[in-house]
Specification:
By secondary structure, the chain is of the alpha/beta class. The chain has two domains: 241 residues, Metallo-beta-lactamase, Chain A (4-Layer Sandwich); 144 residues, 3-Layer(aba) Sandwich (Rossmann fold), CATH 3.40.50.360. The protein contains twelve helices and 23 strands. The strands form five sheets. The protein has a seven-stranded mixed β-sheet. Strands 17, 18, 19, 20, 21, 22 and 23 form a seven-stranded mixed β-sheet that branches. Helix 4 links the parallel strand 10 and strand 11. It binds flavin mononucleotide and fe (ii) ion (2 copies). Flavin mononucleotide binds next to helix 8, strand 19 and strand 21.
Length: 397
């Protein structure tokens, strides 16, 4: 979208869509694009809240120009987050508006110098400080490690807008609709959870700290740096974040397998059917080689049950399953229930490594691990039934 969108009387959304970047952070598939949201408060003093990625700068400055006209300048650039998808246009903004002050905390300052060699025109703020723009007053809340050291949020006390940077945001470009009441939320919630689980989830404890700090704030609008702006139901996205960062999960099972010739896959399908027979309706079955791990971890963040299967591969896990295991370990997902299965033909390597993973994660286990030799036999299927039954018992308990 090339036009600015009004968030309130003097506050504008001036974000841009990116549908050309294939991988966010060169890792996470952007099949549905992504938006870099930035905001402009056109008060007596003019403040920009965050910028956009460098590849989208032209549209961005056109929008600012459209709001301000020829005679007004931007006075402040609030830098809530230094990751380059938002800090990319800082240098350019300083070029356009030579008197601009860059507003950030001590950690922001260090990063500004490290990334862009910027040391001048800095306006240092501490936790709880207020910046007066005229009618609008911005209060700053330092929320370190959500998900970088310098991350902070800015709260407009006048219109009760929380500029929350990456928190509450997600993948998916804004295709016409900008606000929660203008879009299909099911679509965005999936992409917000995928963003959360892959990028922010590892810092769930810091998210909880941030939520505690924001408690009691009267928030009418949540304005993140990605995804929709929440004005109809801001509490909805806040409560989703709260739930995810407490590792709370829904009834359902994610089965992921690594298989070359289908023997491990047969066991996965068999277990899935048994789960279904026992009344589980949310079953997600993934071939680790086919579905990007970012989607898999996102579903694991949603559902309580996880069942992992791997054939043996050069004495180890099947490589695509290794990727899945690494991702779970790295994001430190907690409180899940785990079942294990696999396949081998001589000395194994799959199941033994899944067992080692289970020990590290300290997840609750269901059933006995089953490792079939080449094609699964009756006794293997019996153990698969047991995994499914025990899983259902735990989920329904
Ligand atoms: C490249 C390669 C490496 C393998 N490495 C091992 C191994 O180290 N230990 C083992 O017991 N089986 C190993 N296998 C055998 C498979 O794990 C076994 O045939 C299994 O049944 C394959 O399951 P799938 O049909 O789900 O792919 C290997 C197979 C291949 C093709
Ligand atoms: Fe970020
Ligand atoms: Fe971001």
């Amino acid at each position: 979208m090339n036009q600015p969108v009004k968030v309130s009387e003097k506050v504008y959304w001036i974000g841009v869509n990116d549908r050309e970047t294939a991988l966010f952070e060169n890792l996470w598939p952007l099949d549905k694009g992504v938006a870099y949201n930035s905001y402009l408060i056109n008060d007596e003093k003019v403040a920009l809240i965050d910028t956009v990625k460098i590849n989208k700068m032209d549209t961005y400055f056109e929008k600012i120009q459209e709001i301000l006209g020829e005679n007004k300048e931007v006075d402040y650039l609030i830098v809530n987050h230094m990751e380059p998808d938002h800090s990319g246009a800082i240098k350019e903004a300083m070029h356009y508006f030579p008197n601009i002050k860059i507003v950030g905390n001590q950690k922001t300052l260090e990063m500004l110098e490290a990334f862009y060699g910027i040391t001048d025109n800095f306006y240092l703020v501490k936790d709880g400080d207020v910046l007066d723009l005229g009618e609008h007053k911005l209060r700053f809340y330092l929320t370190p490690m959500v998900h970088w050291p310098e991350t902070m949020m800015s709260y407009d006390e006048t219109d009760k807008i929380l500029f929350s940077m990456d928190a509450f945001g997600g993948f998916g470009s804004l295709d016409g609709g900008v606000f929660d009441d203008e879009v299909n939320l099911e679509f965005y919630e999936d992409e917000i959870r995928r963003y959360f689980s892959n990028i922010v989830g590892k810092f769930s404890m810091m998210v909880q700290n941030a939520l505690k700090k924001l408690q009691g704030l009267d928030i009418s609008i949540v304005a993140p740096t990605h995804g929709p702006v929440w004005r109809e139901n801001p509490q909805h996205i806040i409560s989703l974040y709260d739930k995810w960062s407490r590792y709370e999960a829904e009834e359902g099972v994610v089965i992921v397998y690594g298989s070359m010739y289908g023997n491990t896959e047969r066991m996965a399908d068999f277990i899935a059917r048994k789960l279904s027979e026992k009344g589980i309706t949310n079953i997600r079955l993934y071939d680790a080689s086919k579905t990007h791990v970012s989607y898999i971890i996102s579903d694991m963040w949603r559902f309580k049950g996880v069942i992992l299967g791997s054939c043996a591969y050069n004495s180890g896990l099947f490589p695509s399953m290794q990727t899945v295991i690494n991702k779970i370990e790295n994001s430190a997902l907690k409180n899940r229930v785990l079942g294990i299965f696999g396949n081998y033909s001589w000395s194994g390597g799959g199941v033994v490594n899944l067992e080692a993973f289970a020990d590290k994660m300290k997840w609750e286990r269901v059933g006995e691990s089953v490792e079939a030799k080449s094609s699964p036999k009756a006794e293997d299927f019996k153990k698969c039934v047991n995994i499914a039954e025990e899983m259902v018992k735990k989920l329904k308990a």
